[in-house]
């Protein structure tokens, strides 16, 4: 029997037992500790870089519940367990991790009188433990990193800084940002107080302008971002639309993208994690333009708009509003920056306007509140509240929200902060950010299309219920332990915003008994909360946001992150013994059952999805149900406005905003970007960002396969490779090369009728291990070529491999190579592949690159159908047969399925392709993120 840790909770509660909260058990049973209700097992965590097989992390004999996935186990062990690996102090059980965090929360709750009795505090402890154990919710990553350790108890993932128009303030901005990045968190700020380059200094000179100071901050972030203790940093830079330097700000990253293209065509490595990308500026921040209602109305009416001096506020220049708006859309079309933030909407929903305007956001744009403030986040797993009957359990969800929001507020009592101004503001306003994950999976499981009225109605009702319960509990906390310090000054505004939320709830149109029931409960919660808050105030200035849920989404075994739809219908599942297997997402059969299909039909459709990756023409599936299975990518991807409409449905029920990037196809026009940004304002969003496929050089070339001829029935063909040997006498050529100072020779032999048939590589001294390995490698490649494996397949596999020796070469066509393998197969591609295929692989000669530069990068589009079919038909072993590739992910699977490269960088920790998570990226291999929660 596990020892109950409630004894300490009772002792702590005894110190203060005034009119605290009284709570009842929801998930737990009195007399039974949550740990005793699950089966525990020992596991070995060994995480490798699938590109070279090197071990990134290893810890054996860790203890987890048997229902936790291998992926969740690996990520929690490697990311959240504290103590030096291999030392006795290292955590080895999920029990230790949860206890470390929960006991800290329980002690603080007892010390500050949150609960009426010791029994209430024990219930709080057990309920939190049960929900974390069963993946019902998770705190944001800083809680798992820091709480209960000797480190500073930093619990916040999101920070907003402030900078004024003085050199002292600007230099302090660099310092504060560096401190936040050092801890692996991100920060955002608005630079609009800094004088423009069109204004004078008091000394008589001309001001530098905010864009010039962005360079120093960008360099600082680039230096620090990889050195954080826990994850990479992220940053947001905002500039108001009426700032005189707005055009320069809008164009910063677009101009740098042009520079990237020129450097790429000169042979430099400009991929997202390339060796030379660091020479380009402004790449470490997300940029957003803050637009006012006045500006958007000028765009709508086609009138001029005034740009204002920072010190006096007078109009010093006028511009065509439509032209300026088009330049914002043009830049976003070219390089995905800047995003847009709608100042009027943001501040209209501001609970504390008397204490200052909301001018900026965190890096992912979901947290928006006062300058020099922070927000700690937690997210609930929505799929945990689906009943066996296929409905959403609103009462259970409400009870869970009560415990989670209470714990989040408790954390502010003991939390540490990176700067004193941030600490002061956070303690005075107690901003929280409760949210959820798995919305896309939930909608699919219940038979709703993501882009549908029914789907949006349920999402809106759930979000309204979550925030309504949070504010009702916040009012109860205010009654028990006091309202936030800034409430008295902002009482009228706070009450007004609560009424706006409640009024928006009444406007939600329901379509099914399920979403109607959720909305009805939300209506009750808003009424209770407003009644209580009017009497006692509220404990928190804000309650909810929708964060990306990167690493914590993996911790909870979520199929989808934040507000996102399902990424794809198929994925790889890691196996305990190593390796992986391809499976269809479990939400697919649940959705089919919810839609009324029989078991035999479900089995046939799932088998079809496993083979094709989509549901189009699946046997027995009615076409009107196709939309339920639409995903972020794939055969039926959700239209950009479908994402915007979902954001608009839930935005009125969030204190903050939504972390999300609206993906657009490569064929999207600047006018379509304009329309997305304009409709975001019309629909009441607070922030919006877009990404047009393939708009960045750092994203590998993306070309979808053409549709197969539907009229032709598929034939079953058995492929048996036959070796075609080279004749005794064959043409060949030898190339000498130097890579990073290492010299070698490549000899390539051809068939008389053209086509590469063999290679020999001399590298290293005769008889050395390296020379022997290269001989064996050459023989293996040669035999493969003679069995019909196309050269372009080898080129795609071996180019871009990274290992020493690497660096400059003596080849004018390939200036830099990331390894000898990278050089060899790029050289073979240049010598033996036609231009069309090399263009798709991104391998061009110096002359061809120059020609493309002169043609403004207008490379012809090429049909990849033949290439993809040969790759598909080649005798490459299926991925399940490669245990060393256990880090294979959904992202890479979709690339294989579609012949389409995903918009995501490689993980800096394990080399795996990351996947989008809100406006950030998350790695399914190791859980690393690009700065999100």
Automatic annotation (TrEMBL):
It catalyses: a 2'-deoxyribonucleoside 5'-diphosphate + [thioredoxin]-disulfide + H2O = a ribonucleoside 5'-diphosphate + [thioredoxin]-dithiol. GO terms for molecular function: cobalamin binding; cobalt ion binding; nucleotide binding; ribonucleoside-diphosphate reductase activity, thioredoxin disulfide as acceptor. The keyword Disulfide bond applies. Residues 727-831 form the TSCPD domain. GO terms for biological process: DNA biosynthetic process. Keywords: Cobalamin, Cobalt, Disulfide bond, DNA synthesis, Nucleotide-binding, Oxidoreductase. Its cofactor is adenosylcob(III)alamin. Residues 45-135 form the Ribonucleotide reductase class II vitamin B12-dependent N-terminal domain. Residues 156-691 form the Ribonucleotide reductase large subunit C-terminal domain. InterPro entries: RdRp_reductase_class-2, RNR_2_N, RNR_lg_C, RNR_NrdJ/NrdZ, TSCPD_dom. Its EC number is 1.17.4.1. It comes from the Bacteria. The keyword Cell cycle does not apply. Belongs to the ribonucleoside diphosphate reductase class-2 family. Catalyzes the reduction of ribonucleotides to deoxyribonucleotides. May function to provide a pool of deoxyribonucleotide precursors for DNA repair during oxygen limitation and/or for immediate growth after restoration of oxygen. This is Vitamin B12-dependent ribonucleotide reductase. It comes from Amycolatopsis vancoresmycina DSM 44592.
């Amino acid at each position: 029997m596990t020892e109950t840790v409630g004894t300490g909770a009772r002792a702590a509660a005894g110190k203060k037992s005034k009119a605290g909260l009284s709570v009842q058990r929801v998930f737990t049973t009195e007399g039974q500790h949550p740990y005793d209700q699950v089966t525990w097992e020992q596991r070995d965590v060994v995480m490798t870089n699938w590109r070279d097989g090197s071990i990134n992390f290893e810890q054996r004999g860790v203890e987890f519940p048997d229902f936790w996935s291998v992926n969740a186990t690996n990520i929690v062990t490697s990311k959240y367990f504290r103590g030096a690996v291999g030392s006795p102090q290292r955590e080895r059980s999920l029990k230790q991790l949860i206890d470390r965090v929960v006991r800290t929360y329980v002690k603080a709750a007892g010390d500050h009188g949150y609960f009426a009795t010791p029994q209430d505090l024990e219930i709080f402890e057990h309920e939190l433990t049960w929900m974390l154990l069963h993946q019902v919710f998770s705190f944001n990553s800083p809680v798992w990193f820091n709480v209960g350790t000797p480190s500073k108890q930093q619990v916040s993932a999101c920070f907003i800084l402030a900078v004024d128009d003085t050199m002292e303030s600007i230099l302090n901005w660099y310092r504060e940002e560096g401190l936040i990045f050092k801890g692996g968190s991100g920060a955002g700020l608005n630079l609009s107080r800094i004088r423009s380059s069109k204004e004078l200094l008091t000394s008589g000179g001309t001001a530098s302008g905010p864009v010039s100071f962005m360079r120093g901050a960008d360099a600082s972030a680039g230096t620090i971002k990889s050195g954080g203790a826990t994850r990479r940093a992220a940053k947001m830079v905002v500039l108001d639309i009426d700032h005189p330097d707005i055009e320069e700000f809008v164009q910063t990253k677009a101009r740098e993208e042009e520079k990237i293209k020129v450097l790429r065509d000169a042979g430099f490595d400009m991929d997202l994690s390339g060796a030379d990308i660091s020479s380009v500026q402004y790449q470490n921040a997300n940029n957003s333009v803050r637009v006012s209602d006045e500006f958007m109305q000028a765009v709508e009416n086609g009138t001029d708009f005034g740009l204002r001096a920072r010190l006096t506020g007078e109009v010093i220049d006028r511009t065509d509003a439509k032209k300026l708006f088009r330049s914002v859309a043009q830049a976003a079309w070219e390089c995905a920056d800047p995003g847009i933030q709608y100042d009027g909407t943001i501040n209209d929903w501001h609970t504390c306007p008397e204490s200052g305007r909301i001018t900026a956001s965190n890096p992912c744009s979901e947290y928006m509140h006062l300058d020099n403030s922070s927000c700690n986040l937690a997210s609930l797993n929505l799929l945990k509240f689906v009943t066996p009957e296929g409905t959403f359990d609103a009462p259970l969800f409400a009870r869970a929200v009560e415990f989670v929001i209470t714990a989040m507020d408790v954390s502010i009592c003991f939390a540490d902060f990176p700067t004193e101004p941030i600490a002061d503001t956070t303690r005075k306003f107690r901003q929280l950010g409760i949210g959820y994950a798995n919305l896309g999976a939930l909608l699919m499981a219940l038979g709703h299309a993501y882009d549908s009225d029914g789907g949006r109605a349920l999402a809106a009702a759930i979000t309204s219920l979550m925030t309504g319960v949070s504010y009702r509990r916040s009012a109860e906390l205010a009654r028990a332990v006091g309202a936030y310090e800034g409430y008295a000054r902002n009482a009228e505004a706070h009450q007004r915003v609560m009424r706006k939320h409640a009024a928006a709830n009444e406007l939600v149109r329901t379509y099914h008994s399920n979403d109607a029931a959720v909305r009805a409960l939300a209506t009750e919660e808003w009424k209770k909360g407003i009644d209580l808050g009017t009497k006692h105030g509220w404990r928190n200035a804000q309650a909810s946001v929708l964060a990306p849920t990167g690493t914590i989404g993996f911790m909870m075994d979520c199929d989808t992150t934040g507000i996102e739809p399902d990424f794809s219908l198929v994925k790889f599942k890691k196996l305990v013994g190593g390796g992986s297997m391809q499976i269809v997402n479990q939400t697919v059969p649940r959705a089919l059952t919810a839609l009324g299909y029989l078991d035999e039909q479900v089995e046939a459709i799932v088998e079809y999805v496993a083979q094709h990756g989509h549901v189009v023409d699946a046997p027995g599936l009615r076409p009107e149900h196709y939309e339920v299975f639409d995903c972020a990518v794939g055969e039926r991807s959700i239209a950009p406005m479908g994402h915007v409409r979902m954001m608009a449905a839930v935005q009125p029920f969030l204190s903050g905003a939504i972390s999300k990037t609206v993906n657009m196809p490569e064929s999207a026009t600047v006018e379509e970007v304009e329309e997305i940004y304009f409709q975001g304002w019309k629909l009441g969003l607070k922030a919006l960002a877009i990404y047009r496929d393939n708009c960045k050089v750092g994203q590998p070339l993306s070309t979808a396969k053409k549709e197969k001829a539907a009229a032709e029935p598929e034939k079953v063909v058995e492929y048996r490779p036959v070796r075609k040997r080279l004749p005794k006498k064959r043409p060949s050529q030898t190339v000498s090369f130097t890579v990073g100072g290492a010299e070698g020779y490549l000899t390539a032999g051809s068939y008389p009728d053209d086509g590469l048939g063999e290679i020999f590589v001399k590298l290293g001294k005769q008889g050395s291990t390296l020379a022997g390995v290269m001989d064996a490698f050459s023989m293996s490649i040669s035999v493969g070529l003679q069995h019909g494996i196309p050269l372009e397949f080898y080129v795609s596999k071996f180019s871009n491999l990274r290992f020493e020796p690497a660096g400059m070469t003596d080849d004018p066509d390939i200036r830099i190579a990331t390894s000898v393998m990278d050089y060899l197969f790029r050289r073979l591609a240049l010598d033996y592949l036609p231009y069309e295929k090399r263009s798709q692989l991104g391998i061009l000669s110096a002359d061809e690159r120059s020609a493309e530069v002169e043609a403004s990068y207008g490379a012809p589009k090429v049909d990849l159908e033949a290439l993809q079919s040969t790759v598909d038909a080649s005798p490459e072993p299926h991925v399940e047969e490669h245990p060393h590739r256990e880090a294979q992910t959904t992202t890479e699977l979709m690339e294989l399925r579609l012949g389409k490269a995903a918009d995501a960088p490689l993980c800096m920790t394990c080399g795996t392709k990351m996947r989008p998570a809100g406006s950030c990226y998350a790695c399914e291999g190791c859980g690393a993120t690009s700065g999100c929660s």
